[in-house]
Amino acid sequence: MVALVAVKGITKRFPGTVALQDVSFDIRAGEVHVLLGENGAGKSTLMKILSGIYQPTSGQITLGDTTYEQLTPNLSKAYGIRLIYQELSVVDYLSIEENLFIGNLPTCKKWGLNVVDRVTIRKKAQEAMRRVGLKRHPAMLVGDLSISEKQQVEIAKALASDARVIIMDEPTSSLTDEEVAHLFKVIQELKAQGIGLVYISHKLKEIPIVGDRVSVLKDGRYVGTYDARTTSTDKLVAAMVGREITHSRPDPTREAGASTVFAVDKVSSKDGRVRDVSFQLRQGEILGFAGLIGSGRSELMETIFGARERNGGDITLNGKVINPDSPYAAIKAGLALVTEDRRHTGFFHNFSIAENISILPMLKTAHRQLSLERIDFAEEKQFGDDYKARLRIRCSSPAQNITELSGGNQQKAIIAKWLAAKSDLFIFDEPTRGIDVGAKSEIYQILRELADAGKGIIVVSSELPELLSVCDRIAVYRNGSIAEVFNNADATEENIMHVATA
Amino acid sequence: MIQTETAVETAAVTPSPAKRDFAQLWQNYGTFGVLVILLVLSSALSPQYFLTTDNLLQVLLQSSVMVLLACGVFFTILIAGIDLSVGSMLALTGMVTAQLMMAGCPFWLAILLGGVLLGGLLGAVNGLLVNLTGLHPFIITLGTVAIYRGVTLIISNAASVFGFDPRFGDIIAGRVVGVPVPVLIALVVAGVLWFVTKYTRLGRNIYALGGNAQAAYFSGINVKLHTLVVFVISGICAGIAGVITVARTSAAEPNAGVGFETFAIASAIIGGTSFFGGRGKIPGVVVGGLIIGVINNILNLLNVQSYYQQIVMGALIIAAVTVDKFFGKKNAR
After folding, report:
1. Are B261 and B268 in contact (CB under 8 A)?
2. What is the pLDDT of residue B16?
3. Environment class of residue B292 by beta-carbon count within 10 Å: exposed (0-12), middle (13-18) or buried (19+)?
4. Which of A280, A221, A226 has the alpha carbon at shortest distance from A245?
5. Which domains does chain A have, with CATH numbers?
6. What value does the mean pLDDT take over residues A275-291?
């Protein structure tokens, strides 16, 4: 079969990292080529190169029978490559047919003026909608459609502009089972019409149903291409996570204390994102939470922290039921939440390092909110100096503004504020996101030291090697509840992925 | 991808040394420098009138109401909001204070109830509406600026109220050791608020809320409670300004304070308060209010039509924010 698009030996470097290294990949007419890989494996980078948004550092791209060193968005578009993002880009305030031709509205001459050709639009729209099986009136507002229908509009839009290759990024992530089945039917139709499809997904069970071939990327490298129908899930998972670098595991002789520090018992959230979650944390133990993005781990942590309304269940810290109904109550009770997004929910850009640290102990030791108690500037300076030394925060002075620090050092300052508040249970949500390797290992060491000092530690992470090297037990989270808990000794990336993607 | 972003950000916050030095200088003394330059300029332009004790006291007296309003508005801007209703709150509190006195209420009680308490209540209404609707304070106070004005016109039948206890005007608009009482009041209020912002935990939490509301929430700061308090502070400041306005003119005018929010906001902005929240200082706001007062005064002394004054004022606002945009240290409080 002829390849519609073929990339050969593509390498893409960003300052400081190699996103893709010597990757080859092709798409044939009338097939679904699944692209599989963990977060950060390079799938998005490859797709952005195909759509001309990124230019590869080296390698070749062949469209039909012309070979290019790099593409431009216009070139990619002219050839008929269409990318459908996970976040749909339809315009809610326009009708279906207007969405299909947005930016490219057919016109006709009327009274000597170029006006929008409504008749042609309607005809072409109906044709494109028929091809994706969207049974709605073309003049209907897209805002009134369901998510899955909006997705069909996106696909129809690609078809209406003569797509040859359609790339779908995680198309089923927000669809119900029924909608997924319908999407698969649409995909079969498109195959029959000779369209080449690239299907990016984490969900292993979809692969044999929808795919023809499957290619695996790992850490920016091409692992292999397999038959989607006959290759076992085990083999795919192994290809996805099998790493050359072996990671250390926590010392197996380390015994967790007998006493339970923290317990969550049958906790649900009012919005239904957290369903009946129970777990316990023993003294000195680090508990990890694995799961796919969107499985609701952050929502669970927010519920525990009082930032999301709880619906029943008990949260117990050191033998006392605390059930916080606000972050303030959680903090007063001794909880700490290091959020996943430092910039938006972590630090105060208008504060120095010392001020960012002292804000929490000040609030926690105040008798109430709106406290008119004086700020102890000497103590604040002390906090800054102490934690700069203790957590090895690299800065010229704690009086320096926090935005002048690197991501890793900002993270240390945020951890410092929770330490300064003498918290007992620490929840770390993606503690090393966007942090360089050196700072990562320092953060891991801090986690270990905290656990050894008797603090309870919970780590949410999408990086499995991180969880395996840090956590004593790993809970696999799926669809708003814990699916399974592994002891570190029994946990492998493969069996965690199996449970997470089931 | 993340690494590239970090690199860009680091570059953005590390300007050249020369620019950095100027930024530091501007941040610390910019507004004050502008005031000094203005004073020198005014003295040169009108040597026989400007630099007299009487005239300078007059400048302070005229600035006092504006400084009070600006201090209140400052807090709402500090949390990345705004309070457009200060002029209307000034009119309504002044009117109620006057009517209470006409109804036989002792003047000190009228000040407490009609000025301070009612001001706080009107501010609380702003704050509660912001909290309940989740709308931007611009929208809420754009509504209440009309509502409070309407209430003022209704309860007064759109007529001035005068002829109340003369002791009221004698004391509030009087002088203590030669200094007009309104100036002293404004100084005390600004002093207290300065203390709160700089030295207390409440003040620090308000800066935190203004810098990053999400982070403030996850750090346990009760965002709604602090928002409410900020609007109450603005209301009380406007209430005190309302009492002073009535005392100075010996009458409560239903149309008092129309358009004052513009000058109050201008004072805060010229004084270095960031419109994005989290940055600004009370002394800067006071100096900002004085700058506006001096400009008005010198243009009057030079017999410049008041229409030109508006042009100068507008240009000054744009200039102040422009300088701040290019040289302001975005990360310092």
Report:
1. no
2. 56
3. buried
4. A221
5. 1-80+164-244 (3.40.50.300), 90-161 (no CATH), 260-501 (3.40.50.300)
6. 92
Lowest mean per-residue pLDDT among A18-27, A110-119, A253-262, B5-14: B5-14
Whether residues B13 and A404 touch (CB distance < 8 A) is answered with: yes
Q: What are the tens digits of pLDDT across the range A380-426?
A: 999 999 999 988 888 888 999 998 887 888 999 999 999 999 999 99
pLDDT 10s digits, A291-348: 887 788 999 999 999 999 999 899 999 999 999 999 999 999 999 999 988 888 999 9
Reference A498, options A481, A476, A480, A479; nearest CA is A476
Answer yes or no: do B207 and A344 touch at CB < 8 A.
no
Nearest-angstrom CA–CA distance, B145 and B126:
10
Measure CB to CB from residue A337 to each of B1, B201, B218 and give the nearest one: B218
The amino acid that residue B241 corresponds to is: A
Q: Which amino acid is at A132?
A: V
B201: contact with A, CB 8 A cutoff: yes
Kindly determine whether residue B200 and residue A372, on different chains, have CB atoms separated by under 8 Å.
yes
Structure-token pair, residue A153 = 């509009």
Give chain B positions within 8 Å (CB) of A366: 201
- ipTM, two decimals, is 0.85
Judge whether residue A88 has pLDDT over 70.
Answer: yes
Type and span of the H or E element at A113: strand A113-116
Residue B223's closest chain A neighbor by CA?
A369
Residues of chain A found within 8 Å of residue B205, distances taken between Cβ atoms: 359, 363, 369-370
Cβ pair B205:A359 closer than 8 A: yes
How many Cβ pairs closer than 8 A exist between chain A and B? Answer: 128
Cβ contact A372–B9 (<8 Å): no
Nearest-neighbour CA in chain B from A351: distance (Å): 7
Q: Where are the domains of chain B?
A: 24-327
What class, spelled out in words, does domain B24-327 have in CATH?
mainly alpha
